[in-house]
Amino acid sequence: MNMARLMRYGRDQLSAWLPALLMMVFALGTWWLVRSAPRALPSDQGQIASTEPDYFMRQFSVRSFEPDGRLKSEVFGAEGRHLPADDTLEITQPRIVSFDEQGHPTVATAQRAVAKGDGSEARLYQDARVVREPIARAGKQPATPRLEFQGDFLHVFIDDERVSSDQPVQLRRGADIFTGDVFAYDDRSGVAELTGRVRGVLQPRK
User: For the whole model, what pTM was predicted?
Assistant: First the structure.
């Protein structure tokens, strides 16, 4: 086989394999682009909630209403900042007034509070107090005594009308005083539960 025939044979082979080689090059290039391209985040991870507050308030009040228009609660504060990550409102010098179905108010105060955005509950810190004034009853029945809870931490469930704490709490019912290490109160049933080191002072009834 002379040189001319060898070169012609090589050109024929190259012409036959060239399309396959080009396809292989394109395939390798596409694979490299796919591997190098940034991956898209899933739709539920496209935005990460910020841990920074998205707005501030001073000397404010926020009201929450029932579906029928009845006022459920009102929150007052010297300063407040909203955290979008968990939809909570951090409040300094809070005063939270909640109303039962009959419109009787219960007032909660503290040095600091963290309340849910929907107004369903609040955690009170430092000199936390929850007070419900005496409630008159129909007829000659005696009024419901004044009720007060006090401690360094109180967890108020406004929708469920409950108060609890895993820290020592003092309970005052009229002139009677009780203390306990762990506390839970359900206003709908009128039952208070104190556990741990429990002490009580009962005043004689007139």
Answer: 0.72
Q: Are 115 and 96 in contact (CB under 8 A)?
A: yes
pLDDT in tens, 45-68: 444 555 788 889 999 998 888 889
Q: What is the pLDDT of residues 15-36, one digit of tens each?
A: 555 555 555 555 555 544 445 4
Residue 7's φ and ψ, nearest 5 degrees, are -70, -40
pLDDT score of 46: 46
**What is the total residue count of the chain?**
206
Contact 90, 114 (CB under 8 A): yes
Task: Report d(CA 55, CA 57) in Å as an integer.
Answer: 7
Q: Give exposure, 182-192, as e/b (b: 16+ Cβ within 10 Å).
A: bbbbebeeeeb
Three-state SS sequence of the chain: CCHHHHHHHHHHHHHHHHHHHHHHHHHHHHHHHHHHCCCCCCHHHCCCCCCCCCEEEEEEEEEEECCCCCEEEEEEEEEEEEECCCCEEEEECCEEEEECCCCCEEEEECCEEEEECCCCEEEEEEEEEEEECCECCCCCCCCECCEEEEEEEEEEECCCCEEEECCCEEEEECCEEEEECEEEEECCCCEEEEECCCEEECCCCC
CA distance 89 to 86: 9
